[in-house]
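Researcher: Re-running this chain for the archive, since the previous output was lost when a drive failed. Same request as before.
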Amino acid sequence: MSASKTTPTSQSPFSAVLGDQRHDVYADLAAQGSVHQIKIPSGPEAWLVTGYTETRSLLSDPRLIKGGWRSGAQADKLPEEVARGTYTTMLHNDPPTHTRLRKLVTSAFTRRRVEKLAPRIQEMTDELLTAADDGSGPVDLISALAYPLPINVICELIGIPEQDRADFRAWTQPAASPGFYSAEEYQFAVTALLEYSRTLIGKKRREPQDDLLSDLISVRDGGDSLTEDELTSMIFLLLLAGHETTVNLLANGVRALLTHPDQLVLLRSRPELLESAIEEILRHDGPVQTTLPYLTTEPVEVGDVTLPKGATVLFALMAANRDDGHFSSSGTLDITRDEQTHMSFGHGLHHCLGAPLARTEARIAFRALLDRFPGLRLAVPAQDLMRAPSMVLNGLAELPVHLR
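Model: Regenerated C-alpha cells:
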C-alpha cells in the first residue's frame, strides 16, 4: 500500500499541556493505528510511529538514518559553523561516524565516573532539600530540586564552574524546544552555548582538571581524537540530553507517585522496590515524548503503510511505553511490574549513553524525598498541572507540593 495514510487529530500531542491531555492524544492516535502523518513544530510533515513493536524494530533498522549535522533542528536556519558546532553529535550521525564518536566518548564517560559522582549527588540533594524546607508554604519542586540537581550534576561532570551556571536555564530551554521559540531566540540560545563551550574548551586545554571535558579533550584512539566541532557538540548534547531529561524524570516521577497513593505507600513500605519503581515511572510517564527525527533511505513498509524514501520519521516513545499490545494494563502505574522493557532511553545504536547517570540521580533524589518528607503531597489538583510545550521533551512547567 502506498504512503497515503493520514491520521486526523484534533490536537497535537506537542502542544497538549494540561494534566494528562498529552497521554490522551497519544492514546487516541494509537487507537487509530501505529503510523501517522503529522505536522511537526520545527519543520515539514513527518511520520509518527506510536506502536511498541514497530518502534523497537525500526530503531534498529539500517534503512532509517540520522544524516549528520544537517539533520539538526533548524540547522538550515543557522550559520553553518554554528550548526556544525552544535550538531556534530552521536545522536545526529550514523555509522561509521557514530561508531567512532561513541567509542571515543564511552572511553571517557565511564560507569566508574558516574559512580564516583554519587556521594556528591547525595550532598547536593540534601542541600537543596534543606533549603526548600523553610516552612514558608508550598514549594515548586522543579525549581527547588528537579532542575537545580541535574544541572549542577551535569555541570560538575563536565567541569563547568559554579559561577557560570546561572545562564544555562535561559539557553537550554529554547535550545531544547525549537519550534516553540522564535528562530531568533533559538539561534541566540545555541550560539551562546557554542561560544561558551569554545571558551571553556580553551581553558581546559590550558589547565586540564579531573572532569569529563578534560578527559574528552585528551581521549585518543590510536591517532584519533575528538575535533573542535565534536567537543562543542558533545557539551551541547550533555547539557540538553543529560539535564533536561533528568529534570522531567524527577518531576514526572514525583507526580506519578503522589497521584497513585497505593504505589507510594507500597514503595515506602518496601524500599527495595525503588529501582523497579524508577523503571516503571520511566515507562508510565517518561521524560521524552519522541526521538529526534530519522530519515528513510528507501521505502519502508510498516504494517499497511509504506514510508516513502526520504521521509522524516519520529518515534513516539510515550505512546510505545503505553502500548496495550505489549504492556498489560499499560495506563496503570505498577511499581512491581515485571515488564521492564520501556523505550524511554531509546533503543539500538542511539540508546542513551547517560542512562546510568539518570538512574543514579533518580535513586538518590527519590529516596531522600521519601525518607525526609513522609507528608509529601501535591499542593494543587493533579489535573491542573501544566506540561511544557515541546516536540521532544515531556516535562511539567512546575510542580507545587507541600513537603510536610
